Amino acid sequence: MVDFLGDSVWAVVDSSTCNILYNAVRRYEEIISNQRLSKLKKKQSKHIVAAPDDDDRYLGQIDQVQISLNEICDDTSYPAFQADESYSLNIAIEESTITARTVWGVLRGLETFSQLLYTGEDGSSTRVNATKIRDFPRFPVRGLLLDTSRHFIHLAQIYQLLDAMAYNKLNVFHWHIVDDQSFPYVSMKFPELRHAIGVFCFAELGAYNSVEFVYAPDDIKAVIEYARQRGVRVIPEFDTPGHTRSWGVSHPELLTPCDDIEEGSFGPMDPTKDSTYSFIKELFSELRALFIDPFIHLGGDEVDFDCWELDASISSFMTRENIRNYSGLEGYYIQKVIDIADELNFNSIVWEEVFNNGVKLPNETIVHVWRDWEGNYWNDTMRS
């Protein structure tokens, strides 16, 4: 073991620094300082307390950890799919180093180092075991989904979540930002999407509150930047053609009327109208300018075909287009939306139902498998 002296111990070598690295160093200095000792013992921490003479594990003290970054640190870069997050960590009396090819690897190394520290038996010294670590991720995508439609989550809590993701070396924030329950995204092209009308109940909302419980473009930019500083990608999900009742608050023409089931109700988006796809293209072009990551999640799960089956105009459309079943109609819709995303230079992600229903997806499309709690969904998807 060695004693670690925790104030301003980092030294960056082999590369010019950048704000991502500079901010990370300052952030981990604070993390280490906060976790070292309770406030009661912080005054004592300024004094070195030697290890017991009879403890042959004690090697000495380190007062510096060198950060060796092999590539130029670029403040304009963002974490990306299959980015190199590997690093080496060497803790020794002679020299202690964190070495990585990219700044994303350095972030992971700093996190590991911060978690190796512990308080000595004397109650005041901070110690770390001499060690050598060569670490790299097994999976290039290590994500967490947050649903901000069913329950609005304030930015402060989203930042806490991103911190927790960094602590666990997760690297994809899957932002399920809208759904049936609410539409908290503030669109510049369609600002009416977030407006609430009437009482606050399930199907009568754009957002739960169109002023307080929404995410404006500046809010989203702030989340993307906060995530970037921690090596986390932000991938938005705008789930269609189902899960879109909140869209219909201001744009009922997008949805399929479902009066035969319940008067005044609506089903999934109407896949027969050109205006549906024009609307989606305008909205997605706005998203393309706002979200940095090349991927967008298009949803496609849990599409209820009942309203489509009862709509005479949809039946006529299917006859004209030689679409034989409603899975085929869903495929028709999804293909057009994927084409829109592709035209806007988005890479598409879809839920597994789209794939299982036989939609012919481009090779670049990622199929997101999620159902496995009952039946043989996993096996069926893998066979498909």
From TrEMBL:
Its EC number is 3.2.1.52. GO terms for cellular component: lysosome; membrane. It catalyses: Hydrolysis of terminal non-reducing N-acetyl-D-hexosamine residues in N-acetyl-beta-D-hexosaminides. Coiled coil: none annotated. InterPro entries: Beta_hexosaminidase_sua/sub (IPR025705), GH (IPR017853), Glyco_hydro_20_cat (IPR015883), Hex-like_dom2 (IPR029018), HEX_eukaryotic_N (IPR029019). Belongs to the glycosyl hydrolase 20 family. PANTHER family: BETA-HEXOSAMINIDASE, BETA-HEXOSAMINIDASE A. This is beta-N-acetylhexosaminidase. It comes from Dendroctonus ponderosae (Mountain pine beetle). The lineage of its organism: Eukaryota, Metazoa, Ecdysozoa, Arthropoda, Hexapoda.
